[in-house]
Amino acid sequence: MKPLAQKRPEKMLAALAALALMNTPTRAETVALWLFDEQAGAYPSSVLNDAGPRSYFLILGRGAELVPGRFGNALRPIVPPPLAVTYRSSTEGGGGVAFGLRPPPSKPGRTQPPLMWENAHFAALFTNGDAHLRRAPFANATDSKLNLGENDWTVEGWLRLEAAAKDEGVIFELGSGPRGENELVTRLTVLPAENAFAFTGISMRAPPPSLVATKRIEFPNPAGPPAGVAHLQTITLAPRDLALPRDTWMHVALVHVAASDELRLFVDGRTRAVAAAAIDALPHGDEAYVSVGRDGKWGRPWAGAIDELRISDHAVYQADFAPPGSFSRMHGKALHRAPPIAGPPLLFGPGEKTGRVIELGSRRHLFLDDALLAKRENISLVPHPARMAERVLQGSGWISVVDAGPDDIRLYANGPDNTLAVFTSKDGVNFGAPDLGHDYRGRKNIVVTDPASVGTVFIDRNGPPDERWKIVTGLRDRGGIFVYTSPDGFVWRRHETAALPFWAGSAVNVFYDDQRQRYVIHNRTDYYRTPGGTTNRKSLLTEVTDLLQPWPFRRVSADDTRAATARGGLTRATELDPWWLDNGPLAPGGFGLEYPIAFEADAALDPIGTDVYNTRAQKYPWADDAYVAFPLFFFHYHRDGPPQRQVLADPAQARGSGLVETQLAVSRNGLGWTRYPRPAYVGIGDEDGYAVRRSYVGHGLVRRGRQLWQYSYTRSTYHDAYEKATQPDTIHRLVQRVDGFVSADAPYTGGAFTTKPLRFQGNRLRLNVDTDAAGYLQIGFLDEHGAAIPGFSVDDCVYVNGDEIDYEVEWLGPGKDVGALAGRVVQLVARMRGTSLYALQFVKR
Predict the structure, then answer these.
(1) Under DSSP, is residue 647 helix (H, G, I), strand (E, B) or coil?
(2) Residue 652 has what DSSP assignment?
(3) 503-553 pLDDT, tens digit each
(4) 220 close to 227: Cβ distance less than 8 angstroms
(5) How many other C-beta atoms lie within 10 A of the C-beta of residue 323?
(6) Can you tell me the distance from the alpha carbon of 149 to that of 41, in angstroms, rounded to the nearest whole number?
(7) pTM of the shown model
């Protein structure tokens, strides 16, 4: 067979044409940057993000761990620890083969066993092979600039070599695949015993005679005969006048200079070796892969640690240089971030002392519960559902609404391929798709092309101007919880490290709590089960002070699992343990016992087989000590409850697996929640001809005048419906009164309450109140001894009669000015008839 010409031909084989185009220099850039700054203790199958401009993310294998590095953390290959697996094939959703727990049928001619958990001994990998596994949509490395060829390029990183290292260790390997089945590889290794580095790659030309080893190989041409012919070559680069450092960090850069066809090795910024090199990119491989720290057979482990491995498409270093600092934008940044915005301390925290004086000051107090009340008579706390208004968009997915200005309301919702789209409106009713100057699948309003549509979009007042906007989201079909930042909500940048290396079970829910100076995150776990064996969804609580640093989590041990089972918790431990195995070795696992439970169904309150799909919790922006959540409750038809209920899941019923409603929950600290299950905050039913069977309230509140607006992604089908939808998924506007979630109500025949002792600041008392026409309210002051204060008694109060959100109270003698009482210990006493009281506040006028 005739080999390719010694010089590069004008026309390449059809199989290499794409490579030639791909390797045409455009502008110098980083191709990939693996910082390895995810959490030490991350499970195998966790995402290791690419901090470069692409998404060449890796998956952590059983053959490595994350340890302290030169900057942040680093990748260290290890002997894979023993893995004891509990697996029962009846696990809901199946997946024995897809999750790497059962072998797939063998492929003819293959010598390497298919990848499974038992042999997932790689260190860090992405691959287009092993298609039997559930996996993220990895890029094809041979069709990317990772495929190091004839052009300028640089591979660099920080390496630590163990003192006892003797055997060859892999830093980086790219193969056309199938993995371990052929020799079409590009590989950079260290030969400790020879005090040398070795670069292995292919050349379409006859290699120079100085090379250590060459081998002529043929490879198939996808376009048909003739086949390609290449020379596999190994180039040894032995540093001059340098013994490779042991047990200390060294910066190593291998630079290919196309103009001179040579490789240059730099160690700690000094030129240590130069070698002739005729290098070509590998041909396309349908099962191409990249492996860091081990080769494609999981052999040749690097004896030490690798940190900040970067590949660039240009010769970064032309001469000796000072070794660079960290390539991470975050290195040292946490030390210089401004202190977070701090609100007032919580008034009603846990362990509240009986009889203490409540320092109300000028806070607006919502009557979400009886926290302010010492006693009440014929006063009920009444929840108020949202009113479903018009349909504003056809759309779907977990939505967020952001009030960006008086005439700038933005809805973020699903785009094509689970991307994130933005819609804008001046009035909150008429939304349009802005033209952002670029196109994705025919859409010009896509702000994030990653599958980033399962999260929360919000304005973070703690962020600097270029990071003021945040998205916290899971990445669908990929895994990992990520933070995105933006200066304007239109142009976004994914943060360089995964916040958490888990698979998001649902939309990530986030809010900043200024009163506790931390971000509160709810992530769904599907680890728990109902008595009937179906998934019992719960939300877990994560709290951090810095969203951009990897979030700490507790690695779950076998003892933790046994303890949870011993406490009577119904988990999936008998079906699969460890739980992080549940998505297979190439996809991150879901949440298990890593965090405490933030939200779950109440066995004493809720029907069996009812669980929490999501919380949509947030801090109420217009009052302190007020938190609201809109938990989505899923009522399961199958497996739980009596036969009369389970029959609803029969396909003959033409339903599905159940319905979803939104309820209301409130809190004084964002941790302990009081639920108001009825009336449902957004229930099911007919809304102007639209059959509402599932309503998923989005994150965010918009205030306009006396109203709050929310937005709900609404579906006309049952969950897991047996029949196709006859009406499209829709986004509805919801309308609520300002402060209007819960009110203290007196019946038409009257009621009364007395508050706990308090101190206030200001000279006016304002109420958010609705008496309707024939109702009224009177309110007065008691002194520290419980006696009425002359002139300000409840009997002196002019009737409060009307429907206002800031009604100023007055008394017959002193009028509206209560400044004389400011700073004193007082109690409020109120008489009400046919009235709803939503909030009160003392203000200064």
Answers:
(1) helix
(2) G
(3) 998 999 999 999 999 999 999 999 999 999 999 999 999 999 999 999 999
(4) yes
(5) 17
(6) 36
(7) 0.92
